[in-house]
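Quick illustration, no need to memorize.
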Amino acid sequence: MKLRWSRTLILLPALALALGVTTTAPAAADAPTVRSGWNNYSCKPSADHPRPVVLVHGTLGNSVDNWLGLAPYLVARGYCVFSLDYGQLPGVPFFHGLGPVDASAQQLAAYVDRVLAATGTSKVDLVGHSQGGMMPRVYMKFHGGAGKVNALVGLAPDNHGTDLNGLTRLLAYFPGAKQYLDKLTPGLSDQIAGSEVLNRLNEGGDTVPGVHYTVIATKYDEVVTPYRTAFLDGPDVRNVVLQDLCSADYSEHVAIGILDRVAFHETANALDPAHATPTTCASR
């Protein structure tokens, strides 16, 4: 029994770290709501950018740390930008996205309604990293979000789950590990390829009508594996590999969402396709 439990304790941190999406220091507990111009609820979208952008962090991320690069980038381009925390677990500050994905989707639903009310708009654009690119699809399919979202941009999203380069298959060799994971960090279990949540999400098609989808993946992704499982299939989908835009870009799972300017430029193109410009290694 002691040996089995020890194996479980060894495996779980590896899974948690592998599914994580931020390596930046956590924000201070008393961090202000408005940071670098985002989460400003008095912001009114302009004619050029008529919809607010809601940023959805990934596993082990939060509303600040995940977006220290992209949020100011979009604010500087005239967008009203907002971000939320979701998937919190009791006693675990700063590192979120660990709760059940379905419950997180309901949190997103409430937050989108808050943003719509504050900005006086009828739709938002969503940009999500990792779990944050997949979970909004649960919101749109099962929690009334389809009519409230114009576009979803996923940065290395785990749309069809992940096998973590085969690591998840090791769970079977550690008795009790899967049950422990399900109980303590259900948000991790929900992202494993073949989970009930993912099977239900992708049954009957990857997309919902009326939403424009962009997926930006990196072939160096060590978390969403194989990396092409991030891609969606549907009538209004654009799947992009970062290295097809810039062959010298070596960003992996974390970097694509936190600091990659090529990915940022492609995100801006997806949010405003009528004024898109070529994305290259020189994109700023």
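Residues 189 and 225 are 15 Å apart (CA to CA).
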